[in-house]
Amino acid sequence: MTETPVNSRDNININPIGIVNSPYKEKFAIPRQPGLVDAAKGTIALLNDVNTLDSVRGLEQFSHIWLLFVFHGTQAQGWKPLVKPPRLGGNKKIGVLATRSTFRPNPIGMSVVKLDSIEIVKQNIILHISGMDLLDQTPIIDIKPYISYSDALPNACSGFAQHQPHIKLNITFSKHSRQILTRLTQQRPELPLFIEQVLAQDPRPAYKKNKLDEKVYGMHLYNLNIQWRMVDVETIEVIQITELP
User: Which pTM value belongs to this model?
Assistant: First the structure.
């Protein structure tokens, strides 16, 4: 029996093999690259035929994994050949294939994350990961082990993103938000560091970098609505933390 060759112009059907449970409940405040917020912890629940121990046998030997996923939060908005990457201030247009924009011809993303552990919960395979930049409920379409000797190329040229941007922001908490945070930390010890790492990236639009504005911002992390504002160009204050239903 011979297989029918796939024409390169044919549509290819790809089904999710897992779903992400992430602390990032909305696109705003997600770091623009993986690994920038290592206190971000989440899980991947494997699905259907991939949800077997055989599928992950040997994966525990690797500290990091590649995730290929669907940008489901922006998929419906389509794409354009030219985009404005935040790294260039959000004002200069460049080809979409020269960026990591979420608005792509095919809405596929890739990230390297830390694999913390593999757990079996009622016959379901759960991968515990950290350092992710993924929206909650992101569909995973493939998982591959990270191979350090071939995947890490320290001498590679990275164009306009050769170096990690230098952002130095001080994060403070109001008295009220600090009280709430102290209580919440009993269940999530990493929460203060997580909030600080997210805000230290300055989640505001790129054109507002190094600028002071009076707007009160909000971000949805876990089941929390966290409101914050710029005190000066180097300081962010968390003014309110509210638990959501």
Answer: 0.90
